[in-house]
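Progress narrative, work stream C.
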Amino acid sequence: MNPSINERFIECVNETLSEKTTSKTDIAKNLKIGRTNLSEILNRRMNVSIDTLSAFCLLYGYDPIWMIFGEGTKEEKRPLNIDYKELAEAREEIIQGQKREITLLEENNAFQKEKIKQLEQEISALKKSGVTKNADKEVLQT
């Protein structure tokens, strides 16, 4: 394997170890390799396998494209550990709220239509009674 891949892998392992949240033993265990093999890689006496490299990227959030080709950024730009059930529940709450809002708007719309109908009837009755004509004449005279 290309030595630069190994160098990037070693850099990331050392960075992960410097965060003091894990140990070499933990990393080896998580990668399903022996601690001795990890030490051999870190001491540049052994190349990292693609399986180990991909597992490390997935587990510790590093970008595999950067790790292999040195392009892009070191940290992978994707959210980890998404709780899809929680996300679905939140979306369901939003949908239910929107359905309630639609129902209220439909009720308000029906009320407004009824009010318009009543006002049209009142206008029609006023026109028949001649009140409108008298009001128009008064407006014109003033």
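Work stream C, second folded protein:
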Amino acid sequence: MIYKNNTLKHWGQTIRAVLLFVVLIGVSCKEAPKNGGTVAAKEALKVADQESEQTGTPLYRTSITATDIDFIRASDTDAFKSLAYVEQGAREMPGSESGELMDPGTFVFQVNFKEGKDIEIWAHSAFGTINAAKVYADKLGGRLGKLPLYMRNKLSHVVLHKGDSNAFAEDAGGFFVLYSENMDERISTNDLEETVFHEAVHVAFDLAHAKSKEWKEAQKNDGVFITEYAQSRPEKEDLAESAIFVYTKLTHPGRLDDKVVQWMETNIPNRLVYIEDLFEKTNKK
């Protein structure tokens, strides 16, 4: 389009940006099963692909629930070997609905892997019985096995609660917390593997990298965030939000739409290189 004057050019750019924003919002509000992408998602990527320069706008609302991308598939290989009940005893269980930190009757399970250290799963006594707790421990075991070895070895344990709250991680403590109803919802949308990965990134990398000078410099030089969630909490969520895109690009070439990869290379090149280097280095450990 040839603009007759600067005012017309300004309005053309404004309309274009508004259209991109509307399309992206439409994508972010739809949490459909990951079956290859909704029409709205493909339209958003089409608009993003047409931008030869930085868009200045996050590509998605969040990395997991607001995309149709199946980053980590149930059919992907994993290192899970077995799960066994250990004991019922007292454990610190942050995030419980009762608000009590200590749970004297926590159900403790141990997950064994084909390589790397074992990981304990602590299920709150609110599950009621060993069998009820084991149902959710079983849902988690294989998904822990899909984590990269380095990330899995950084985990101390995983806490399971009954309820529908959102997962969260305690990087200093080396664990993350999941809730039963939220797990079931994430399984129904093929998102639990990605949720486990996201929280494990917090545990494995946040302390050393999320506030580091090099990471902040990469953020500054890029100036754009891949999701709105990352943009809203740059010191806490940007690394975990970006990492799942980069990990999928590295380990499963072709799984991400070419337009997503192009957006990353154009808009977040410094963080792309930073995270690629991070995974390559830790894979050797």
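The chain has eleven helices and six strands. No further action is required on this item.
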